[in-house]
């Protein structure tokens, strides 16, 4: 069913129009990358490349979105539910620390959990190395430049050695699904290069004819026979000769070399070797220019749906020389621009616009219908053991990866997440029975391509159970933005199953009579008990109450739209009356994170999960719940602005929902702090690397996606029953600006232009002409959305 409705997406959803970008969107540098965090990411949704463009020894890190160690497993503890009454009794008695100790003993996953296989890890495919020979080990080079065009999804570098101009061009083809690298010299016979491919473990490289072949099999944690993979490297020459020596391709005296890298895995047990052969045979028959043009055309069908111009920084908002020049500083290397932007506190309005489009570029490059969604690293990893397994964290990270998808007009790229979630349901049903003796399905904090839904291996973080409900928010948002009822019908069983679980496991808290989850936790946070001890385990944390309230409401709406499950609708409606409110205000004015007014152990904790009701949900708004919105503001003030990049990006989104554009903009400045740090960080100190990838540190792509979503949220909101134009425009962007192609809920597309902070022109489009409420310059009016451009 999922494949069927995706075929109709273009006709049902306003995505078809391509504007073409008004100006070049380019990252560029005047020196080779000295570390991986400076390399430029390329991807076609399945294959990835990151070249360092070194003059003498090029290293190109290769990736395949499906390359995972591990395997399906059942790590459920089927005796766990027997401990549930004792755990709940301890919580009702206020003995949270004792309840947590019992959970650590008897209520976590079996086996090694996320710490090792068979849970598995997203891994690098390997390294393609190009060793260049210029005839002199002490050669020098000049006129160096490397760049990445977001307009075309093509990277390149150029430089001169001994009067010869050398060029390299790289792209991961959106046409024939293959990596392509073109090397040229502007004088005949000047290309001499040794090509090799390798991987740190579980790989064998051989030569077959005039090709390189690297293959292997990853560990599954059971019998060692996990996922198999294959990469083939084919070289096509103009001039010169090619020999195979010591499992390498040695090319002498060529004028042009085109390298084709075809790769794949046996994920879903496909005939990957045969497909690699077919892809390679097809690609080498085409001219380079036709292959490149096909790639650009296919890519632009997605990328060109949205254009953004934030104009020139308003007077008084920055101190940089270029602010008053009225022109983008394209003649300044990107790493220097980042430093200038940080030092001047926002002189370059074009850089946030570039960063916004870079986030869209990363989305397009790191996922594809029919494959996996972007993981913690999107598509790009340079290690065998990526940080936090490069997995799918369900207590914010994979959800944040998808927050820009709908609003920035890339709705089909939400479908891989929907497929991943559908694949979790049957395993999640077993987990629901094993731990809670409950109906429906549940997922906790982490998952992988194999559908892991069990609690993690530690009570302090692993029993958080909002994973399934939070994922349902993403699934619902795709419907909310597209109005695609065929899609809603396909995912309704997933939403219903999650609601059945929460409905089944709620218990009544005696003091309030409210229905609550028990045991649970507020993601990764800890509080002090009255006895001075600390705990994470509790009853009914605020985020649980908000997610369950939102989910029940969405399932009720969906059942009405689909004309099904009337009795369930009535049951959930009655349960909604007994759920806690979306939030409670503490004595200090903050929104309470737990049902008891506990003191957190870290007031600046990176997670602020109890503001879920403000974003991504719409349970709290300044208009409908001003007291709770004020409590959210107080919470954010107390938490502070710093943190890992994803945390800063989330705070940016909350300030945008509170209509505070200047505070949201301050978070953009905070997040775009230049760094090269790669340490594992849980506290302050996020930022961006020279290649614009976000740093936790280490690299974690959610900061990129969250910031792109945040910029969109500053310009357009549609969650409160009307389309709000420029709800959180900062002073720095007020002078002038224009955006085309953003999406609003209800399947509307929005173009708008502003000057001096006021909308001067806008249009709202719909598949069918119909009325819609829109807030323009502070006034809500009803207009007729037009059908076409």
Q: Which geometry do the CA atoms define?
A: globular
Poorly predicted spans: 1-11, 316-325
Q: Can you count the beta strands?
A: 35
- How far apart lie the N and C ends? 31 Å
Described by strand count, sense and barrel closure, the largest sheet is: 9 strands, antiparallel
Average pLDDT, to the nearest integer?
Answer: 95
Helix content: 25-40%
Number of helices: 21
- Tell me the fraction of residues in β-strands, as a range: 15-25%
- Structural class, judged by helices and strands? alpha+beta
What Rg, in angstroms, do the CA atoms define?
27 Å
Strand order of the largest sheet: 1-6-7-8-9-16-13-12-11
Description:
This protein has 789 residues and is α+β, with helices and mostly antiparallel strands. 31% of the residues lie in helices and 23% in strands.
Condensed summary:
With 789 residues, the chain is α+β, with helices and mostly antiparallel strands. The chain has 21 helices and 35 strands.
List the helices and strands and how they pair.
Layout: H1 2-7, H2 9-12, E1 26-29, E2 42-43, E3 47-51, E4 57-64, H3 84-92, H4 96-106, E5 126-132, E6 142-149, E7 154-161, E8 164-172, E9 179-185, E10 191-198, E11 204-208, E12 211-217, E13 228-238, E14 241-244, E15 249-254, E16 256-265, H5 272-284, H6 288-303, E17 307-309, H7 334-344, H8 350-366, E18 392-393, H9 397-401, H10 403-407, H11 415-422, H12 425-436, E19 446-447, H13 459-462, H14 467-482, H15 485-505, E20 507-508, E21 515-516, E22 520-521, E23 527-528, E24 534-535, E25 537-538, H16 542-562, H17 566-576, E26 599-600, H18 626-639, H19 645-657, H20 661-671, E27 687-688, E28 694-695, H21 702-715, E29 716-717, E30 723-725, E31 736-744, E32 748-755, E33 758-766, E34 770-776, E35 779-785
Parallel strand pairs: 30-34
Antiparallel strand pairs: 1-6, 2-3, 3-4, 4-5, 5-10, 6-7, 7-8, 8-9, 9-16, 10-15, 11-12, 12-13, 13-16, 14-15, 17-31, 18-19, 20-21, 22-25, 23-24, 23-26, 27-28, 29-30, 31-32, 32-33, 34-35
């Amino acid at each position: 069913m999922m494949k069927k409705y995706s075929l109709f997406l273009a006709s049902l959803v306003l995505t078809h129009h391509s504007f073409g970008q008004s100006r070049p969107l380019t990252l560029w540098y005047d020196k080779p990358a000295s570390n991986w965090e400076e390399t430029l990411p390329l991807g076609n949704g399945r294959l990835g490349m990151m070249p360092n463009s070194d003059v003498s020894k090029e290293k190109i890190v290769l990736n395949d979105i499906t390359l995972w160690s591990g395997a399906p497993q059942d790590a459920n503890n089927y005796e766990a539910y027997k401990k549930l009454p004792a755990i709940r009794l301890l919580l009702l008695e206020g003995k949270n620390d004792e309840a947590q100790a019992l959970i650590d003993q008897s209520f976590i996953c079996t086996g090694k959990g996320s710490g090792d296989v068979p849970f598995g890890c997203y891994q690098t495919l390997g390294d393609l190395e190009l060793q260049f020979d210029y005839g002199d080990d002490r050669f020098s080079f000049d006129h160096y430049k490397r760049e990445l065009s977001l307009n075309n999804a093509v990277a390149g570098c150029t430089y001169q050695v001994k009067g010869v101009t050398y060029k390299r061009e790289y792209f991961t083809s959106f046409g024939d699904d293959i990596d392509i690298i073109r090397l040229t010299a502007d004088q005949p016979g000047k290309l001499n290069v040794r090509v090799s491919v390798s991987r740190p473990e579980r790989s064998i490289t051989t030569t077959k004819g005039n090709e390189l072949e690297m293959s292997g099999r990853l560990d599954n944690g059971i019998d060692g026979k996990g996922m198999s993979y294959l990469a083939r490297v084919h070289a096509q020459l103009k001039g010169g000769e090619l020999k195979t020596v010591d499992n390498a391709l040695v090319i002498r005296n060529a004028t042009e070399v085109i390298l084709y890298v075809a790769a794949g895995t046996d994920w879903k047990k496909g005939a990957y070797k045969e497909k690699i052969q077919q892809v390679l045979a097809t690609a080498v028959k085409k001219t380079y220019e036709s292959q490149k043009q096909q790639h650009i055309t296919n890519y632009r069908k997605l990328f060109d749906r949205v254009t953004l111009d934030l104009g020139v920084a308003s007077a008084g908002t920055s101190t940089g020389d270029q602010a008053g020049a009225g022109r983008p500083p394209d003649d300044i290397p990107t790493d220097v621009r980042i430093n200038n932007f940080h030092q001047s506190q926002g002189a370059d309005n074009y850089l946030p616009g570039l960063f916004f489009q870079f986030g869209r570029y990363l989305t397009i490059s790191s996922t594809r219908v029919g494959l996996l969604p972007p993981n913690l690293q999107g598509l790009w990893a340079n290690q065998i053991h990526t940080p936090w397994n490069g997995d799918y964290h369900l207590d914010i990270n994979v959800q944040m990866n998808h927050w820009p998808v709908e609003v920035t007009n890339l709705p089909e790229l939400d479908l891989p997440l929907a497929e991943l979630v559908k694949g979790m349901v049957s395993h999640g049903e077993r987990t629901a029975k094993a731990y809670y003796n409950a109906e429906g399905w549940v997922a906790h904090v982490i998952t992988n391509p194999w559908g892991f839904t069990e609690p993690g291996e530690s009570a302090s973080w692993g029993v958080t159970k909002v994973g399934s409900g939070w994922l349902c928010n993403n699934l619902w948002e795709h419907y909310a933005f597209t109005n695609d009822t065929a899609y809603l019908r396909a995912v309704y069983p997933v939403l219903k199953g999650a609601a059945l679980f929460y409905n089944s496991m709620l218990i009544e808290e005696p003091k309030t009579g409210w229905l609550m989850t028990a045991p649970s936790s507020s993601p990764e946070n800890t509080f002090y008990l009255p006895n001075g001890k600390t705990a994470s385990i509790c009853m009914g944390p605020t985020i649980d109450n908000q997610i369950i309230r939102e989910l029940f409401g969405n399932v009720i709406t969906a059942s009405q739209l689909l004309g099904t499950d009337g009795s369930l609708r009535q049951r959930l409606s009655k349960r909604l009356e007994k759920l806690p409110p979306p939030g409670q205000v503490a004595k200090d004015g903050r929104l309470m994170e737990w049902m008891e007014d506990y003191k957190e152990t870290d007031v600046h904790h990176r997670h602020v999960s109890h503001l879920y009701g403000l974003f991504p949900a719409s349970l709290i708004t300044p208009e409908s719940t001003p007291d709770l919105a004020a409590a959210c503001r107080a919470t954010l003030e107390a938490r502070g602005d710093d943190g890992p990049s994803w945390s800063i990006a989330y705070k940016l989104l909350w300030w945008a929902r509170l209509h505070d554009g200047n505070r949201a903009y301050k978070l953009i400045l905070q997040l775009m702090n230049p760094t090269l740090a790669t340490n594992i960080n849980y506290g302050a100190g996020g930022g961006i690397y020279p290649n614009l990838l976000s740093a936790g540190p280490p690299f974690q792509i959610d900061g990129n996606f969250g910031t792109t979503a945040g910029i969109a949220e500053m310009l357009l909101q549609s969650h409160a029953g009307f389309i709000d134009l420029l709800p959180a425009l900062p002073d720095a962007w007020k002078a002038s600006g224009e955006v085309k192609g953003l999406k609003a809920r209800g399947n509307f597309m929005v173009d708008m232009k502003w000057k001096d902070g006021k909308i001067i022109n806008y249009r709202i489009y719909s598949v069918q002409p119909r009325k819609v409420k829109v807030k323009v310059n502070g006034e809500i009016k009803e207009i007729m959305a037009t059908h076409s451009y």
